[in-house]
Amino acid sequence: MSRFLDPYYFVNSLLLLVYGGLRAYFVYFTPEGSEHSRFHSLHDLAAWEKQLMMLAMAFIAYKGLRMRSWDDYAQQMFFIGKLAVALSAIMVDMRLGVLYALAAVACWVAFPQPIIQMSTGRGESSISILTPLSMRDFVLRGEDDWVVFFYTENHVNSIATAPAFVEVAQKYASESLSFGVMDACLFQSFSRELKLRPNSWSNQLPAVVRYVRGKEHSRLPMPAAGDELGLRMNYFTQKDIVQKLALNEAPAPSKGTKKQR
């Protein structure tokens, strides 16, 4: 089943459609001059809608210029849409604004955005699921080149960037360049050994690291100067992964036969 059929997308779409009911409430149930509403006429509401629409279109265009994935784009659109509905609800009736905000928070807690399935765990998959043991055996002590995606499932940036990593893996995986994923929060001690802070609030997740014959070659985000654990902003696209990790460069030939994972 497509992740876009997950309840997250259905519920958030309903939260946006609430605006139709909100507008009907103002038109049919809010008397002119009501102390609960900042709008005094339908003309005032229409002017407010026009301003919101212009801001929303500008935001959509800006996000479209540097979109990490459709998951990222959907999350951003839902956010700006719910914010617009919440502000409109406050303007129509403060009480409705409070109720809408509570409903939005409850849905955010109950229906988190799903992350793409990056690997089936089967032999034909272009991405391997890694554990500390397989990471040491195949990546850190092996002869092949690897690109590893460190993430955690409930992290907004991990969810947004994972589809971009999957597309890169499908395009660049070969006999001499392998791709793997590791949930950093499941293996926190090991992640710290790799100089990653494994928590959902860390600006180090997600991280994409390229290993060449067991040695770290490059990573995204890049380490900040003077702090081996501090990392710069973790907002990067498919193009960034390819360019910064030099995936267009031919990997060094592996020694021996490729190991079975």
Automatic annotation (TrEMBL):
<feature type="transmembrane region" description="Helical">
    <location>
        <begin position="83"/>
        <end position="111"/>
    </location>
</feature>
<keyword id="KW-0812">Transmembrane</keyword>
<keyword id="KW-1133">Transmembrane helix</keyword>
<feature type="transmembrane region" description="Helical">
    <location>
        <begin position="7"/>
        <end position="25"/>
    </location>
</feature>
<protein>
    <recommendedName>
        <fullName>Thioredoxin domain-containing protein</fullName>
    </recommendedName>
</protein>
<keyword id="KW-0472">Membrane</keyword>
<dbReference type="InterPro" id="IPR036249">
    <property type="entry name" value="Thioredoxin-like_sf"/>
</dbReference>
